[in-house]
TrEMBL record:
Any one GO molecular-function label of the UniProt entry: uroporphyrin-III C-methyltransferase activity
Keywords: Methyltransferase, Porphyrin biosynthesis, S-adenosyl-L-methionine, Transferase
Descriptive protein name: uroporphyrinogen-III C-methyltransferase
EC number(s) recorded for this UniProt protein: 2.1.1.107
CDD domains for this protein: SUMT
Gene Ontology BP annotations: methylation; siroheme biosynthetic process
Pathway(s) it belongs to: Porphyrin-containing compound metabolism; siroheme biosynthesis; precorrin-2 from uroporphyrinogen III: step 1/1
Entry similarity comment: Belongs to the precorrin methyltransferase family.
Cytoplasm as UniProt keyword: no
A Pfam family matched in the record: TP_methylase
PROSITE patterns the UniProt entry points to: SUMT_1, SUMT_2
């Protein structure tokens, strides 16, 4: 049975008035970065399905009687494939429960929101999308920097280094050009591949790169290096997921020697 046919069967057995589903952005980690709308949904929810990266402090803001269900995924090993997540959130709503699907960061940025929206709408369920602060914004704020700078970087590119198996490589040459800040999500395991891709695309290897891990949390770490040195720095530094990688190509860039220094909150 396909996931869609399973959802339709569930719909035929459901209560006449399904509950709503809210796809809520939990932000990068710190609970006080939640929006007021996100907080309202958490305090009204009957059941919350939450990701691996959602901070426990965020869950403590939920309605005390709300059921909390972990549906986290690890790259390459998951008991919660996307089709199963779609099915359980829809099934809960079809029983008349108010459902929150709580996602780290912003649900619309590499959060697989489209699949969950389609599943809910196929079952006739109303969906509210609540934006959250994405990792790129939180990381730069924590570092005391801006994502863009007038006269230097007037183009911001958000991209993922991890695509579906079998997908072609990203268009690295199109992503990064003078005047660009490239924020790479899910790039820890792909550093060697995307660095080689950028080199082949003619990107200067002395561009400044900033890595930020666990932005906005007590475990935050960051380092600044160059694109050429990035694979070695990542291997030596032990930066885990979630980490975001910024590559900055300013309009006034001039070739320079490699620079490496630690600027993290924690070691």
């Amino acid at each position: 049975m396909t996931p869609l046919s399973m959802l339709r069967r569930l719909a035929t057995r459901a209560a006449p008035q399904p509950g709503p589903i809210a796809l809520v952005g939990a932000g990068p980690g710190a609970a006080d970065l939640l929006t007021l709308r996100a907080l309202r949904h958490l305090q009204q929810a009957d059941v919350i399905f939450y990701d691996r990266l959602v901070d426990p402090a965020v869950l403590r803001l939920a309605r005390p009687r709300a059921e909390k269900v972990f549906v986290g995924k690890e790259v390459g090993a998951s008991d919660w494939p996307q089709a199963r997540i779609n099915a359980v959130i829809v099934a809960a709503a079809l029983r008349g429960r108010r459902v929150v699907r709580l996602k780290s960061g912003d649900p619309g940025i590499f959060g697989r929101a489209t699949e969950e929206l389609e599943a809910a709408r196929a079952a006739g369920i109303a969906v509210d999308i609540v934006p959250g602060i994405t990792a790129a914004s939180a990381a730069c704020a924590s570092l005391g920097r801006s994502l863009t700078e007038r006269g230097q970087t007037d183009r911001l590119m958000l991209a993922t280094a991890t695509c579906r198996p079998g997908d072609p490589d990203p268009d690295w040459a199109g992503m990064l050009r003078p005047g660009t800040t490239l924020a790479l999500y899910m790039g820890v395991r792909k550093v060697a591949a995307f660095t080689a891709g950028l080199r082949r695309a003619g990107v200067p290897m002395d561009l400044e790169v900033t890595i930020v891990s666990a932005a906005s949390t007590a475990a935050e770490r960051s380092t600044v290096t160059t694109l050429a040195a990035l694979p070695a720095v990542m291997q030596a530094g032990g930066f885990p997921n979630p980490s975001i990688i910024f590559i900055r190509w300013s309009k006034q860039h001039r070739a320079a020697g490699a620079v490496l220094h630690l600027v993290g909150k924690a070691v």
